[in-house]
Amino acid sequence: MKTTSFSQHLGTYFDEYLPNVRNYRPNTIASYQDTFRLLLEYMAEQQHIKPYLLDYKHFSDKVILSFLNWLETHRNCSPSTRNQRLSAISAFFKYAFLQNALFFKISWFFPAEYPVERICERGHRVHCLLQGIRLCADLHEQ
Predict the structure, then answer these.
(1) pLDDT tens over the chain, length 142 residues
(2) Contact 42, 91 (CB under 8 A)
């Protein structure tokens, strides 16, 4: 079975990037993994998309916000837990965007000295990163 870009990036993110590049502690990595376990559960139960079929095209700011609301209403998570989950998702999408940008050598699109956070309006970081990832995915399919 062919793996999606999303699943490839997610595996590399947890197996290589977080422990080796970012030097995150095992508890932090476990917390990030829990976020994505919940996200995959949400996507399967609420969006009816099996985890092995998930790709970047299935995510939007609306889906992420719906997931965050689901955490609060169905899982009884506090706002601080919800925000921590959003931070973990945002960090992954930033990583995935940068991996795609490096793969397609489109660093001209976002110069290295210009942080990704400043490219987007405040509060729309995940949306902007998703748009960038979709751009790269479109380039990959061509």
Answers:
(1) 577 788 988 999 999 999 999 999 999 999 999 999 999 999 999 999 999 999 888 888 788 889 989 999 999 999 889 889 988 998 898 888 777 765 544 443 444 443 444 444 444 556 666 666 666 556 555 5
(2) no
Instruction: Give long-range contacts, CB 8 A cutoff, 24+ apart: 96-103.
Output: 96/5, 96/6, 96/9, 96/13, 96/56, 96/129, 96/133, 97/129, 97/132, 97/133, 97/136, 99/9, 99/12, 100/5, 100/132, 100/133, 100/136, 100/137, 100/140, 101/132, 101/136, 103/136, 103/140
